[in-house]
Amino acid sequence: MRERNGSIFTNLYLVRHGQTQWNVEGRLQGRLDSPLTETGIKKAQRLAEQLHGIPFQCIYSSSSHRALETASYLKGDREIDLIPTDSLMEMGFGIWEGRKWSEIQDLYPDDLLCINHHPERYEARESQGETL
Predict the structure, then answer these.
(1) What is the pLDDT of residues 24-45, one digit of tens each?
(2) Taking every pair of C-alpha atoms in the chain, what is the biggest distance, in angstroms?
(3) Active site residue 90
């Protein structure tokens, strides 16, 4: 937190998990997990170096393994809490998870179009996943 002109400001840094095997394969992850790739690990380590001088109070992370691993690189040797929470988990996509995007496009083109362009109308009937 910083104070400026009598007001207190908190900086919030949002970081996406590093590249995963399923990202490379073009698969939808959602709540399922896949491991970070070497590229994902290297980019997380590079970001950790870039953020090294920033005094974080704590790190909140999705409880998914890919997010926690990424967050652990950012935490490094800092004496702060790394707090996993399901509240930051990615949306669940039911039976679509683990499938290639191309397969989802072929099998469920209308639903995929809806979630990508009108997510507020997405009903998740076909995927059996979550809605917004």
Answers:
(1) 999 999 999 999 999 999 999 9
(2) 56
(3) yes
